Amino acid sequence: MRRLALAYNPVSGNATFKNRLDEMVEAFQRRGILLYLYRTKKDGNGELVDFLREARAEGVLAAGGDGTLHEVVNLVVKEGLDIPVGIIGSGTSNDFATYLNINENMEAYFDCIAEGRTRSVDLGRVGEEYFINVASAGMMTSIAHEVNVKWKNALGRMAYYLKGIGEIPKLRTIRLHVEVDDATHELDAFLFVVINSSVVGSMKHVADDVEADDGKLDFLAIRKQNAAQLVKLTADLIAGKSVSRQNAVLHLQSKNFLISASEDVTSDLDGEIGPPLPLRIETVPKAVRIYA
User: Fold this and answer.
1) Where does 78-236 show beta strands of DSSP type E?
2) pLDDT, tens only, 110-132
3) Which CATH number describes the domain made up of 130-285?
4) Checking CA distances to 74, which of 40, 61, 134, 153 falls within 20 to 30 Å?
């Protein structure tokens, strides 16, 4: 039988994925595949690399949220493991899985994995760290790190929204300096994102013309504006409308970006705490294969 590894986060989402393990084992066993189970740990999972090698796994499935996928992808790419990554979205936020329409029919996705169908996608790189979906900084980007795990498990995405409401009175902009290609941009912005897909923060279509395999990344910044304009922009995002062509948004597309700020600002990579600005972000074309 063929072999796949399943790296699962026991506390992601509503912390019930562990109750689905027998279901997962049966689904893949029925397709002639043995699953080797690896339980991720909060304090690091570097030993997963040895686990994958010793198991002689043909691929690894990341079961959790965006942070779990981020960690698995980084381990696979940094260690030069030539194996595909699968996404079993079971976290509070599963943006890249949503972008690939993976969660809509899991039986069909399991067939896709069993048949070995993959799509090579780009990654963003900041120093030695990679991101598969988004790098961000500014207003609201720290919320994912501040929401209590018990809140997330009990309330799901609503926990983020409740936390966000509490941040509204503190809204303020940061001065950004963005270098891209042969141009520079100066602006006051509430936040910025550099994205590899059009799904960000559970909002399903934040920008037009965004593809995960086009060899480029997309920068979007929400410019300083009054409360009424910000509310309208937010409503459009929640409704699934693209905002990349709105005057309130600066949208740039390129392979490389250098982003700095006039004050100390910490970034976020796929929902995990990233380095402080300035950020030098580069595209790594088709850096990892994803079952899709």
Assistant:
1) 85-89, 118-126, 129-131, 134-138, 174-180, 183-195, 217-223
2) 999 999 999 999 999 999 999 99
3) 2.60.200.40
4) 153
